[in-house]
Each structure stands twice: as structure tokens, then as C-alpha cells.
Amino acid sequence: MKSRRYGAAFAILAALLLILLAMNLCIGSVNIPLSEILHILMKNSGSDTYTDIVMNIRFPRALAAAVLGGGLALAGYLLQTFFHNPIAGPFTLGISSGAKLVVALVMVASLGNALRLSSWVMIAAAFVGAMICMGFVILMSSVIEQMAMLIVSGVMIGYICSAVTDFIVTFAEDADIVNLHNWSKGSFSGMTWENVKAMVLVTGIVSIGVFLLSKPISAYEMGEAYAANMGLNVKRFRVLLVLLSSVLAACVTAFAGPVSFVGIAVPHLVKWLLGTARPILLIPACFLGGSVFCLFCDLLARTMFSPTELSISTVTAVFGAPVVIYIMIHRRREKAA
Predict the structure, then answer these.
(1) Reported CATH class of domain 2-336
(2) Which residues fall in a coiled-coil region (predicted)?
């Protein structure tokens, strides 16, 4: 019975992924028929205008939303595992904001000197920022016992980093301030194939690494004492969780800016869909769920008030925040019971 539920859950996620990918390619300011999309993807004859729109704008953007959404959901799952807290995530702990701050500094410096940043430089800058904030959060976790206060501290770090970033963006060059402002609010627009290749490589390698850690994660979730008795080096494992989650969060922030609530909400939605918390199932399901969630939100961000485009965080917050509120209420009831 359980295996049927797991199979059905993965089938639903895969079907939604394909449907939303097709919708993101078809729907926009110029609606393109699905048959034309298929012709273009199979490199058959197609309108030059349609080909340019699909291959240079919509397809890389849709792939970026899918890959980065999956990576962000996985980062949230790793942080929830690390802190044993259901509302821990790259956004709430300030990790995304720290990555955003360093990337903004590098971007403004490069714009001032007419330098072109590669995808790898952006990822490296975001990783540095993510690790700095993660270091602060871990230091506070050794001082603050209450997890609620740790989350509040992470939010405060995020606000400080966002304030400094906004200050930097304000004084950027006028010609580049629009793109920098859009990125700082969170957006999948302007993706190139070079960006897609870099994010697929980084996110793919890290995601495979996370999947291979399914068994140690399962032991760690049973408690640190249990994991140590099973032969797991807990300190080394915790460092590995920090590094993997920071790389994933940094990769997302480098290309799309800060994206809120995906890392918190998706792992819980997927857990509810599967009816299990087993890491070997939850890890691939989180990646698929994050891809589906971000493709859906990006489609709404592009089309809801077209030609005006919403920031991706605006839409993800609308759907993700109620999940977080439900989690907190549910936990409070469980403690009261």
C-alpha cells in the first residue's frame, strides 16, 4: 500500500513538472502553440521569432526555475535536518541575504570597472556570503538554546544584510540599476545557457551527494547520540550538511537573488504527499517538488499582471507563508497535547 502511494506521489510530481514546463514555454506576452514548441525543440522547421523566444528566453528561464527551485527545496530540507527545526531555511536563517549581499558587492564593483562576471564568480561570491551568515547562525546556536530565538536571530541577520544590499543597489550606476534591483528582489529573468550549464553542474553534483547521504541523514534524524552509536562522525557530518546546504543556497542566490519560503514549505508539502519522512524518498521528492513549486510561481509572476512582472519572492511568499503558519500552529497544538 505504501509503495503505491510513493509511486503515485512521484508520478504526480513528474506529471506536474512536465505540464508546468510546457506551460512556461507556451504562455507569455506572445502565446506559442504546443505543436510549434515541439517543432522548435526537435529542431524542425519553425518560426524564427518563436524559435528566438523559446530557445533564448523561455526555455533557459524555465530550466533555471526548475533546477534552482529543486536546489532551494533541498537546501531547506538539509537545514531543517541540521537544526532539527521545521521552519529553518536559507531565507529565514539569513543565509540567502548574506549571499545576496556579497554578490551585490561583486556585481557593483564589476559594473564600475566594466568587467563581465562569469557564472562561477557569482556562485563563489554567493557561497562566501552564505558561509559568513551560516557561521554567525551556528555561533548563535551554541549560545541560544531556544530554536525560536535562533530563527529570530537569523531573520535579523537577513534584514541587516538586505538593508546593506539595498544601500549598495541605490548607489549603483543608473544604466545597470534596473537589472540589479530586479535581481535583488528575486527573479528568474535574463537567464542564459551559460548560467543554466553552471547551475545544472553545481546543483546536480550536490544533489547526488545529498542523495548518497540518505542513510546517515536517517540516522542523524534519530538523534545525535543514536547516530554516533551507529558509527557516524557527527561533527564531520554536521560540517558536510552546512557546506552542501550553503552551496545550494548560494547557487540559487547567485542567479535568481533571494527566493523566499520555498526551502521551508516544499519539504513539508512533499512529506505530506509521500506520507513518510524517509530521506531516501524525501530527497528526490523535495527536488521535484521545489521544481514544480518554482515553475508554477514563476509562471504566475510573469503572466498575472503582464506586461508587469512580479518578483518571484512575492509569489512564493503568497503560497509558502500559509504553510509555515500552519506548521507553527500544528507544532503548538502538539506541544499542548
Answers:
(1) mainly alpha
(2) none
Measured between alpha carbons, how far is 182 from 293 in angstroms, rounded to an integer? 20
Positions in the chain whose pLDDT score sits under 70: 44-47, 111-116, 144-148, 172-182, 331-337
Q: Is 229 exposed, middle or buried (0-12, 13-18, 19+ CB in 10 A)?
A: exposed
- The structural domains of the chain, with segments of one domain joined by +, span 2-336
Q: What is d(CA 109, CA 78) in angstroms, rounded to the nearest whole number?
A: 32
Q: Residue 327 has which C-alpha cell?
A: 506548521
Which of 10, 62, 66 is closest to 284 using CA atoms? 10
Return the axis-axis angle of helices 279-303 and 214-221, rounded to nearest 10°.
100
pLDDT digits 0-9 by tens, 157-201: 888 888 888 787 777 665 555 566 667 778 888 888 999 999 999
| Grid coordinates given for 76 | 531547506
Q: Are 97 and 106 in contact (CB under 8 A)?
A: no
pLDDT tens readout for residues 73-115: 999 999 899 888 888 888 878 888 888 888 888 877 776 665 5
Phi, psi of 68 (to 5 degrees): -70, -35
Which residue reads 554567493 in cell numbers?
Answer: 126
**CA separation, residue 76 to residues 50, 72, 98, 155, 301 (Å):** 37, 6, 16, 15, 22
Predicted model pTM:
0.89
Task: Report how far residue 239's alpha carbon sits from residue 243's, in angstroms, rounded to the nearest whole number.
Answer: 6
Instruction: From residue 37, give the alpha-carbon distance in Å to each of 26, 33, 41, 95, 259.
Output: 7, 7, 6, 38, 28
